[in-house]
TrEMBL record:
Key word Metal-binding present: no
Highest rank taxon of the organism: Bacteria
One annotated GO molecular function: unfolded protein binding
Pfam families recorded: HATPase_c_3, HSP90
Histidine kinase/HSP90-like ATPase domain segment(s): 24-175
Record key words, sorted: ATP-binding, Chaperone, Cytoplasm, Nucleotide-binding, Stress response
InterPro entries assigned: HATPase_C_sf, HATPase_dom, Heat_shock_protein_90_CS, HSP90_C, Hsp90_fam, Hsp90_N, Ribosomal_Su5_D2-typ_SF
Full protein name: Chaperone protein HtpG
The keyword ATP-binding is assigned to this record: yes
Binding site for ATP: E31, N35, D76, M81, T165, R333
Amino acid sequence: MQKGNISVQTENIFPIIKKFLYSDHEIFLRELVSNAVDATNKLRTLAKRGEVKGDIGDTTIEILLDADAQTLTIRDKGIGMTADEVQKYLNQVAFSSASEFLEKYKDDASIIGHFGLGFYSAFMVSSKVEVKTLSYQEGAQGVTWTCEGNPEYTLEENDKDFRGTDVILHINDEDKEFLENHRIQQLLDKYCKFLPVEIKFGTRTETVTEGEGDDAEEKQVEVDNIINNPSPAWRKQPADLTDEDYKAFYNELYPFSTPPMFWIHLNIDYPFNLTGILYFPKLGNNFEVQKNKIQLYSNQVYVTDDVKDIVPEFLTMLHGVIDSPDIPLNVSRSYLQSDSNVKKITGYITKKVADKLADLYKKERDNFISKWDDLGVFIKYGMISDEKFYDRALPFTLVKSLDGTFTPIDEYKEKVKEQQTDKYDKIVMLYTHAPDQHNTFTEAAKNKGYDVLIFDNVIDNHFMQHLEQKLGDVTFVRVDSDTVDNLVQKDEATESVLNEDEQNTVKGVFEKIVTDKGSSVITKALSPEDQPVTITRPEFMRRMKEMQSLQGMSFGDFPDSVNVVVNTNHPLVAQKLLKEEDEGKQQEVADYLYKLAMLNQQMLKGADLTAFINKSLDFLK
């Protein structure tokens, strides 16, 4: 038996490894299985070059759990190691065999690890680690390396009779969760689902049908539990995939999810390596809950689903996979944010997404328009948060009119410019977030020849404000923010049929009726055909309050600012109300007209609505 000391710089290396090598202890399984994949890929590379004699046979990696012995074994049938190689690669921390092999066979090797620390993650969960290995080399002798989490090790010969390496972890008392079948299955599903070598973890029961017709019989059979898909869709060429293949892969990533609208296949090898598939899910009015759906891989090794430092934030609303060996497996956020490759990848993905949307709009406009309710959330968010995406997306960003037509913003500006340009030379884009509730307002706007848009998404307040800043010559005004004559402000005035004293009398009567906090009574000369009383919500205060609510921030309590606008030229105001000599009768008329305005905005419900209807019958007599 040979004894020696592992070559390290400090006696404290193992406590450091156990606590700080990775932030999450569960990562050990990813690292060890990745090493097993490396060993298998090395063997395949040598076999291709004719350096391994004969058929390499089964290369399935096995995960073996023995709860009674408190061991977890990762077994590969890869290249194996000689005693000298064990000395070289296991006893010198951070000397990576992968780096050396990759340099030698860089033209045809696919190796995951580069830093040589992955193996030592085993000590985060183990009181002892054994490595039983036999090299592929003819006449090689099997050896066993053993270490109990300190710089001392033992190395002795064994009688292992098949090529490859068993890494046997003696799980410590603090990490017994890793002796549970469901926990290991969970980790394999998370980290190893698409590794390029088949991985077996025990067996599972499948139902098979034997025989045909009346003789058909279902039977339960035990089969190998292969936990991964070694050849996922993103590693294939787009020309080799059908739409059904893409949808099937989406279902593999997100079982039982609603099918995606469409997808983008990423495939680039210069100036960086990047493959992947990004799917556009159906978002509807969902804004926040879709994030953390993009999975990041490095050479098919799962890294994370928190990709906000690699993918622009608005793209995190997409689903799918990004795979790049140019993104290290274990790095800090600050490194990611400053790394030049990451920045290039971010820019490339943004451009590919914009190009895909532009192409879809150009070639399949009807299809694009039919998906706008889902696409709109994504595109608007992207335009707000990414300057370059804004420039690319503006030509295919649509607005929806009440009549159901969709128009690109630049075309829409020209469409309404003549009729809806105000005295400040701003093009006024009128909109509603609730067409049914604002029916009275939208009808009044249409009667004046105005077009009304629908903006009913949670992100629209931010989007409209962003467009106002970027375009400069546009302002958005909600149809209930003012009376119809003032939605598009002109240098036009209508005279009141009432004198100043009569107007003050009308205002005083309504102020006794309208007592809600934040409500103001305004008398205004409008057309006799306009509503007698209109309830409006000033644009600025309403927008501020809605944005405050959306952002979950507080800038002080914004009141529900409401203007009760009384039309002094309407006959029910100018004649009926003022002709009533009794103050109580005047208040009855004012109350009726105020409730009528509330009814027009669907603000009157339940018992209040019933009482109003009964009073209306008496009033109309």
